[in-house]
Amino acid sequence: MPGFRQFSTALGVCEIDAVLLSPDSPRLSLRLSEHVHARAGLLQLDCAVRGRFVLPDDVCLLVHVDQTGAQSWCHGQAFARHSAVLVRPRGTSEFMLGAGSRLLFIVVRQDWIRPLLATGGGETAGWDVCAAHFSIGTAASPAGLLQLYQSLAGELEAGVENALAGARPVADEALLREVIQTHLQEAQSLHPDDRMPNSRSQRTHYLVLQRVEHFMRSRLRKEIYLHEMCEAGGVSERTLRNVFEHMVGVSPNRYLAMMRLCMAYRSLARADMSRQSVKSVALSYGLWDLSRFADHYRRIFGELPRATLSGDGA
Q1: Given this chain, do its domains 2-194 and 200-310 carry the same CATH topology?
Q2: d(CA 114, CA 291)
Q3: Which residues form the HTH araC/xylS-type domain (predicted)?
Q4: Which long-range contacts (C-beta less than 8 Å, at least 24 apart) are formed by 270-274?
Q5: Fewer CB near the terminus (10 Å): N or C of the chain?
Q6: What is the pLDDT of residues 231-267, one digit of tens each?
Q7: Which CATH number, 1.10.10, 3.30.300, 2.60.120, 1.20.120, labels domain 2-194?
Q8: C-alpha–C-alpha distance, residues 183 and 168, integer Å
């Protein structure tokens, strides 16, 4: 997943653990503005992806959801257009982005934002991702932050697409600072009623999805049957299908198949071809039909498995 390797580097994380859910090769547009203490980016996706990542301890992540595809959420909490999120380095961050999503993100060093927090009269020690997920451009959050993010998007669009090496500060430094300060101040001033709602059913579905995903990952070498997924999730087959359709937009079996493919891709990309073969990697993820595996792999990743293993691919 070359595009997601770039996105991982942009976030400053080791790797985004992504499961691609669109039937064809994913396309990702990424524009960056590199600064001394922060990195701003504009991400556009034409594919659906379920992913997770871990932020380094010395940074936090600010996100503006400009456009959102179906089944888009963070930690099970549904994204809405023109919402804002603050992600702090507290374990694994989980997300789902539907096709057509467009996000502006800022990765900023925590030591740089401390003076900004001081002017806001608060501290972020108690925040979590859900508590800092709020709508902007509403009565509770005036349009100032939305307009600032729209200005930032305009400047990022002038940058070079998918450029990481030698990325330059496209965005104005003063604008970037104002966006960060305004985002943090609005998050600090949130009243509980201003936070993005999260229904009980949404939360329940998210927890079921997590349990079934964990079961899948623990048994990828083996055959996994639908009734076993139901037992892992503690739900009926009908409920399981509804959960996956609602949360990730595909059936449980389709999700499992894409998870196997994506895990195989990551292993092949990291493998030493003198010690591992395409066959050994495929079998380790329960991909028994090697011909079918190669066909599906090429359709999704645009290259054959052996090209990824040899390092000759994209």
Answers
A1: no
A2: 55
A3: 210-311
A4: 271/309, 273/309, 273/310, 273/311
A5: C
A6: 999 999 999 999 999 999 999 999 999 999 999 998 9
A7: 2.60.120
A8: 23
Calculate the CA dihedral of residues 78, 79, 83, 85 and round it to 10 degrees: 80
Homologous superfamily of 200-310: Homeodomain-like (1.10.10.60)
Angle separating helix axes 252-270 and 290-301, nearest 10 degrees: 80
Greatest pairwise CA separation for the chain in angstroms = 61
Q: How far apart are CA 259 and CA 104, in angstroms?
A: 27
In single-letter form, the type of residue at position 165 comes to A
Question: What are the sequence ranges of the domains in the chain?
Answer: 2-194, 200-310
Q: Which residue has the tokens 């930032």?
A: 152
Give the chain's radius of gyration (CA, Å): 20
Report which residue type is found at 114: R
